[in-house]
Amino acid sequence: AAPGASSSSRSGSAGAQPSSARPRSAGSGVPGTDALAGEVWVTKWVDFSSKYGVGYILSNGCVGVYFNDSTKIIQASEGAAFDYITRRTPENPEVRTTHSLDDYPEELKKKVTLLRHFNNYMVTDALERRDGATTGESSLAAPPLQGGARAGPGHAPGQAPYVKKWTRDRYAIFFQLSNKMVQVVFFDKTEAVVSSKAHMVTYVNKQGEVNAYPLLNGSEVPCPELSRRLRHTRDIMMNILGARPGDAAAAPAATTAR
User: For residue 246, is pLDDT > 80?
Assistant: First the structure.
C-alpha cells in the first residue's frame, strides 16, 4: 500500500490520462522544470516549527517564512522589499502589506529578524540539522541563473507567491502555495507537484526520473505509484486542510487558510 493511502479508489480522486496513454517526459532542460514553466515551487526548507515556523526558498529565489501563528512573510529574490501576510480569521480577512527591510513597523521586528536568520541559514549552510530543526530539498531543480538573476516568472511587489499552508506526517511534507500549486515531498525520495493552472502533475519517482501527467478529474493515473501518492495528497487536503470532497483534481487547488 502507498504511504498513508488506501489501495482502493475514492470518489473525486485526482486523475490523469487513461492507462493506455504514455506519460509525457518533463523535457530535456533542467530536470523537472519544463512541465513547470512559469510556475513556482519550494526548492529548500527548514522546519523549525518547534520554536518559530518553517523557512523556505522558492524556485524564483524568493525567501519566505510560515510562522507558527499562521502569519507569513515573503522577501523578493532581489532588493530589500518584503510582504507580510496576516492570519485570516472568521472575523478578519487576510491582509497583505509591502515593506522594506530598512523601513517596517516595529511590531514586525522579531519576524524580520527571523526572516534574515532563515535566509542566512538556507543560503550559507549545507541544510544540516541544527538546533532541533529539520531540513529538506526538492528533487526538482530551480531554473538556472541568467545574468545573475533566477530565470522564471517575475512578480511585482505584493504579488509574489508564498506558502499558504504546510503540514507534515510520517510519510511526507506538504506545501500549498498561494499560486494554487500543491507540492508533496515524500520521505521515500518521491515527489509530486500539482499545478491546477496547467492541470498537470509533475512526479519524481524513486529512481529520480521526472515525468509530467495531465490531470483529468475522475480518470485513473497511468502510474500506480503516483496514483497512491495523489490519494494521500487528497487525504491531507480533506482531513487536515479542510478541502471539500467535490473539489476538482482531488482538491489540490483549494486555498483554505487557518
Answer: no
Q: Cβ of 176: how many Cβ atoms within 10 Å?
A: 26
pLDDT, tens only, 16-37 = 333 333 443 334 344 444 668 7
Instruction: Please give the angle made by the CA atoms of 256, 99 and 253, to the nearest 5 degrees.
Output: 20
H/E stretch holding 118 reads helix 109-124
pLDDT in the model for residue 236? 85
Q: What is the rounded CA–CA span in Å between residue 10 and residue 7?
A: 9
Q: pTM for this structure?
A: 0.77
In 3D space, the residue among 140, 133, 123, 125 whose CA is nearest the CA of residue 61 turns out to be 123
Type of residue found at 51 = K
Measure the CA–CA gap between 69 and 87, rounded to whole angstroms.
8
CA 80, CA 104: separation in Å to the nearest integer? 11
CA atoms within 13 A on the CB side of 136: 21
